[in-house]
């Protein structure tokens, strides 16, 4: 049997079925984007399996999204560690951006989970650590004066997440290659947040 994604499959291999379904989700995200959502009937059809098999292996749409997210993070070896050394805010923001950009579809999957009402995974998994480091960096003069570090952290996270989610659209609308725009935006973030 051959699936819509062109893979030959055997009906009895659960690991192969799981991989096909996860591939289908990632393909749909790539082709249709986050806001199109993920319909389990369409996923099953694209993967060449029945919807009941999708439910059997994943339990729900959230289960499927979590499984695809875990696989994506493992395959990309994404690390969500906050740098521990003192650094200027602009460099911290650029680090966050670059970490998201190597994550493949992980941010899109996380976004879908949260739009679906999930409380995990956390959008800011290292928030407590980052706030302590921002406080330290502010005391060292590396971060501008503000009395609201949580709002500062949320504002730069929103900027980075928003750009990472829509970068292909921004690049298309501006007529700039995505990789070039990534570098230009990183420079702008660094400049903007170092001078804030």
From TrEMBL:
Domain of life: Bacteria
UniProt domain HTH tetR-type: residue ranges: 15-76
Keywords: DNA-binding
Keyword DNA-binding: yes
Keyword hit for Cell division: no
DNA-binding stretch(es), residue numbering of this chain: 39-58
GO terms assigned for molecular function: DNA binding
PROSITE patterns for this protein: HTH_TETR_2 (PS50977)
Protein name: Transcriptional regulator, TetR family
Organism of this sequence: Devosia limi DSM 17137
Source organism phylogeny: Bacteria, Pseudomonadati, Pseudomonadota, Alphaproteobacteria, Hyphomicrobiales
């Amino acid at each position: 049997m051959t699936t819509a994604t062109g893979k030959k499959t055997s009906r009895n291999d659960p690991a192969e079925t799981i991989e096909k379904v996860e591939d289908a989700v990632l393909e749909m995200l790539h082709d249709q984007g986050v806001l199109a959502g993920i319909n389990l009937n369409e996923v099953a059809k694209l993967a060449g399996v029945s919807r009941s098999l999708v439910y059997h292996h994943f339990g729900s749409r959230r289960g499927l999204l979590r499984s695809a997210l875990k696989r994506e993070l493992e395959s990309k070896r994404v690390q969500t560690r906050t740098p521990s050394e003192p650094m200027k805010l602009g460099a911290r923001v650029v680090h966050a951006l670059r970490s998201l950009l190597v994550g493949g579809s992980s941010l899109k999957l996380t976004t879908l989970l949260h739009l679906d009402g999930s409380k995990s995974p956390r959008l800011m998994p290292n928030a407590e650590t980052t706030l302590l480091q921002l406080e330290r960096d502010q005391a060292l003069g590396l971060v501008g004066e503000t009395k609201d570090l949580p709002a500062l952290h949320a504002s730069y996270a929103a900027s980075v997440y928003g750009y990472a989610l829509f970068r292909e659209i921004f690049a298309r609308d501006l007529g700039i290659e995505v990789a070039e725009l990534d570098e230009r935006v990183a420079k702008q973030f660094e400049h903007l947040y170092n001078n804030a």
